Amino acid sequence: MKNKTLFWNTVKELGFVVLASALSAFTLHIFVFTNNFAPSGVDGIATMLQKQTNVSAGVYSLLFNIPLLILAFFFINKKYVIHTVIFTILSSGGLMILRAVEFYQYTAENERLLAAIFTGLLLGVRTGIMIRIGASTGGVDIVASIVQKKKPYFNVERIISVICYVIIGASFFVYEKNLNSVLLAVVQMFVFEWAVGLIMRDSRDTVEFKIITKHPEAIKQDIIYNLKHGATIIGSKGMFTGEDSNIIVSIVNARQVPEFLALLKKYPDTFVSYTKLMGVRGNFRWGRNDIAK
């Protein structure tokens, strides 16, 4: 049973790699190459080199990623490397094939903003898919993963952002000093980061409440029987007053926030803070047959 589950998980992950590869190749070929802007990262470098040399961006993508993947083999887990290798080969090969068969390309007559928006959205989904399965799309993502592996507390994202903006800035000179090309690339990058964040978020939209109160039992009843959720009660002491108190931590659906706040109005001496969560794992609702103690 365990081997069967592992097999189907592997098949599912490979399916996601194929999907992400197709998204990458089609997006770059259809929306980027004919609209005179370069996305961030290695994709942007390959795009600019294709324009300058008339050699497929897929070739450059392979040339840049092969040495990085060899390096990653010694520092990052093998599953990450294997999936990233498959993605790189498929996406680069896809770019070469689409160019060879002269597949359709979208050329904006007046407004290229739509091309930048859709590029950011689709490439963001592509990257989010690869990150969710524990891999990457190559390029600067590999560098980031290696650095993060060696220095877990290092703020690698800031350096990666600087590199990406330097690449975008270089496009100013490649596209005949046209500022529109740079601005389109910046728009693409903002949409890209938003789309990655959207994919990385859990499908369950949740909010965490932290309630400091002297009425934990009463609030407990409301949470369990009205909101149908559980909670954790933590003993605490006020820093200023030195009085004993309790902290209740509860996670609820985002749509239940108004209802929760309405319930807490019955306890005017409570202090409440709440924040949106990126994700939740495990069952956080009471089942129909569960009995509260």
Write a structural description.
The chain has 293 residues and is of the alpha+beta class. It has two domains: 2-200, no CATH class; 206-276, Alpha-Beta Plaits. The chain is 59% helix and 10% strand. The protein contains ten helices and four strands. Strands 2-3-1-4 form a four-stranded antiparallel sheet, with helices on one face. The longest helix is centred in the first third of the chain and has 31 residues, at 2-32. 33% of the residues are buried.
Search tags:
293 residues; alpha+beta; Alpha-Beta Plaits; 2 domains; 4-stranded antiparallel sheet; 59% helix; 10% strand
Give the % helix: 55-70%
Radius of gyration: 25 Å
Averaged pLDDT, please? 86
Basic shape: elongated
Uncertain spans, ≥5 residues at pLDDT below 50?
Answer: none
Question: Helix/strand-derived class?
Answer: alpha+beta
- Spatial order of the strands forming the largest sheet: 2-3-1-4
Note the run of SSEs as H and E: HHHHHHHHEHEEHE
Number of helices: 10
Main sheet? 4 strands, antiparallel
Determine the oligomeric state from the structure: single chain
